[in-house]
Design goal:
With 110 residues, this protein is α+β, with helices and mostly antiparallel strands. The chain has helices at residues 31-37, 64-70, 82-88, and strands spanning 11-15, 20-24, 27-30, 48-51, 56-59. The termini are far apart.
Length: 110
Amino acid sequence: MAAFIKREDGFFSGDSAVSTEYIYKGRQWQGRSFRNKYKGLENHPDVKQTKGTAKHRYLMPLDDEMREQITPLTKPYPKRSPRAKEQDAGHHPALGGVTPTRTLQILEAA
């Protein structure tokens, strides 16, 4: 279950550092997952390193004293891209529109 922070409750404090991701055997792996599964293969010639994306960081004060301390650290919330807004509205241009889901049951003709 994901936790959500409303604008009234939390403060945006910027982005994290860009992470390193790996491509191995045609699959892209996040850094920690790859290093846990394939220990020592980070510099192997078959492994390609790429830059991942930065994650948004938020601060949530637990009391009024903490709110006063973190208020100077806040930054404006990032703007949403037009593509993200379209996807939230249910319009997925990359998918070519709405595709009905086929049933999993096989209906026999009587």
